[in-house]
Design goal:
Length: about 475
């Protein structure tokens, strides 16, 4: 079929799915015109209904599977089609790993401007040790039904803010389902309403649970719209703490803003502790409500051990800089194979916990800084004049600024190990480093987020 104008694309047609896009859509091509198909797997022949058409691409939905891909499988969750959280659950897990590697390759080869640098070794994706009940953190938005005012809590339907009231979620520890069910009922008993996003009214906006893979304890945070209902919240927190098992602590977070950010600035613990514990690389960590922690502690542990092994095989007593450090997880795990580790993180709650963690684990060679990473790099260059054999960069999804990368280059004498949850910004930043004369030795994808399109990558770069 020849496509010279988007109007030439029929409303319904049968296509072969060739690949998976970086957002988990099946890709079909029509004379070079790209169609992103929701719920399709490479190898499928499907009848689709085309939605919005743009100049070079359109979106579509499957209306009939004509010939299924051999990689299709039964989803582990009955809500997979309506809930937007696990886009790939209908695809065989081993094949998901292959598709994730393909996504990383496609992203790199489309971003790297110089084709001669395209021969970067991208390794096979390392599977998650668990692909069920792997999540360390869940954050359910909350609302209520119009008439009966029943509390609803769950994930949003794809591309909407309509909540799917989830009673069972196979990717989170099963006890979280009990906690959420208890809160649905107990909040209503305590006179606490669910949030109405359109009217910016109602009380309970989100429930956030941190759950420990180490000892099964849970930290429950109730995110609320206002402080007016404080007595009711105290009652609810007390019931959660006393009537449920394995609750480490219960807190409230006040977030009166109309915003997409889940947590507001202030969290107050009403019952128990303000942290849970996780064990990684034989060290016990404390994780708080506001501190970053990797979503999947099983894969996180694999990544820390992988980097530790790489360093112990290639260096003797290196100086290591761990930037964007959170609770200094990398720094603390790598302290066994380093002369000294210096960590920098801008969130004070994280560096405060990191200081406690090194004390409790008897670690003497980790130095912690609470600062913006870029400012710290600049200060370090201008004052101390220290050089690091290895710099670990683990920035947020948006990646690093060119300024920070330039500083990191000046501070590092041998390797940068760049850990990233966003292949696009990783490719952009590696492209910049290659332009500055660095060599990407290899990229190792890890499956931190089974059944979703997300991928974690570790890139080793020689400076
Ligand atoms: C992807 S997390 C990694 C945390 C840690 N490496 C880990 O594995 O748990 C990114 C961290 O960078 C921190 N961060 C974001 N921007 C920063 C900046 N400009 N300077 C320092 N830290 C920053 C965030 O608070 C977060 O803790």
């Amino acid at each position: 079929m020849q496509i010279t104008n988007k109007k030439d694309v029929p409303e319904e047609l049968i296509v072969d799915i060739e690949k998976l896009s970086n957002l988990g859509y099946g890709i079909a091509k029509l004379d070079g015109y790209v169609i992103f198909v929701e719920g399709a797997c490479p190898g499928d022949k499907v009848k689709i209904k085309v939605g919005k058409k743009n100049k070079n691409f359109a979106n579509a939905k499957v209306i009939e599977i004509i010939e299924p891909s051999p990689y299709r499988t039964e989803p582990i969750c009955p809500m997979q089609k309506v809930c937007g959280a696990c886009q790939l659950q209908f695809i065989d897990y081993e094949y998901q790993l292959k598709l994730k590697k393909q996504i990383v390759e496609d992203t790199f080869f489309s971003i790297f401007r110089d084709n001669s640098k395209n021969n970067i070794e991208i390794r096979d994706t390392i599977a998650s040790p668990k692909n069920k009940e792997y999540r360390h953190k869940i954050q359910y938005p909350v609302s209520e039904t119009k008439e009966s005012k029943r509390i609803l809590a769950g994930y949003y339907k794809p591309a909407s803010h309509e909540i799917v009231n989830i009673k069972y979620c196979p990717i989170q520890p099963s006890y979280c389902d009990n906690i959420i069910e208890f809160i649905r009922q107990a909040a209503q008993d305590c006179g606490i309403s669910g949030y109405n996003e359109k009217k910016h009214a109602g009380d309970l906006k989100h429930v956030v649970i941190r759950t420990s893979a180490y000892n099964g304890k849970n930290l429950v945070i109730l995110v609320v719209n206002s402080t007016r209902i404080f007595d009711k919240l105290k009652k609810l927190a007390s019931r959660i703490y006393k009537e449920l098992d394995n609750i480490a602590g219960v807190g409230v977070n006040f977030n009166p803003q109309k915003t997409n950010l889940i947590l507001g600035k202030e969290t107050q613990i009403l019952e128990g502790n303000n942290f849970i514990e996780e064990k990684l690389c034989d060290k016990v960590f404390k994780v708080g409500a506001e501190t970053f922690f990797q979503v999947n502690p099983f894969t996180a542990n694999n990544i820390f051990e992988y980097i530790k092994k790489y360093i112990s095989e290639n260096f003797k007593d290196p100086m290591i800089l761990d930037a964007y450090a959170g609770i200094s997880t990398f720094g603390i795990c790598l302290s066994d194979v380093a002369k000294k580790v210096v960590t920098v993180e801008e969130v004070k709650a994280s560096t405060d916990l990191a200081s406690k963690i090194i004390k409790e684990n008897g670690i003497k060679n980790v130095e912690i800084h609470n600062m913006d990473a870029g400012k710290f790099f600049e200060k370090e260059l201008n004052t101390k004049g220290r050089k690091f054999d290895i710099t670990v960069l683990d920035p947020p999804r948006k990646g690093c600024t060119e300024e920070s990368l330039n500083y990191a280059l000046k501070l590092t004498s041998n390797k940068i190990i760049y850990v990233s949850c966003n292949p696009a910004t990783l490719a952009r930043d590696l492209n910049y480093l290659v332009e500055k004369g660095c060599k990407v030795e290899f990229i190792q994808p890890f499956d931190m987020f089974p059944h979703t399109y997300h991928i974690e990558n570790v890139a080793v770069i020689s400076v």
